[in-house]
Amino acid sequence: MRAPGCLLTASMLLAGCASAPLAGPVADAEGKRFDPPTPGQSVLYLYRSSLVGSEVIFSLADNQQPIGSLAGKTWIRVEIAPGQHVITCSAPSYAPLTQTAAQAATVDIGPGETRFLEVDVWPGLPLNPRCMATEVSAEKGRAAVAGGNRAVALRL
Fold first, then answer.
1. What is the DSSP string of 6-68?
2. pTM to 2 decimal places
């Protein structure tokens, strides 16, 4: 009797995988070239490489301005002005009494720089997914972006 229960649970988890709006294949390929930013700008890549928590879509903001959403194995590239940027991510909570503020990463980015932030699930109470953003090396970030799909950014 245990096998049917496991199969049911596995099928429910797979059916619950969320998706973010994806950019087309041309935009995906362009972002994976890792072109430098336009003069006077900087580039920030935000990505999710883990399938853990893939049933949750994270909404992202830069200095409180929405920039897009990420599901598992997706990424966004945004050109931003040089300076300090506070990146926040949030996820819907199904336990309203236990909502937690979004985790933030602060990035000081110079003109012409390209930086990478990994957005991931942070363990929390059941039904209350939380996320955090962590800066990673260019090597790790490029590999994760190359293995994912480009999500639509609200801000280019």
1. HHHHHHHHHHT---PPBPPHHHHHHHTTTPPPPTT-EEEEEEE---TTTT-PEEEEETTEEEE
2. 0.81
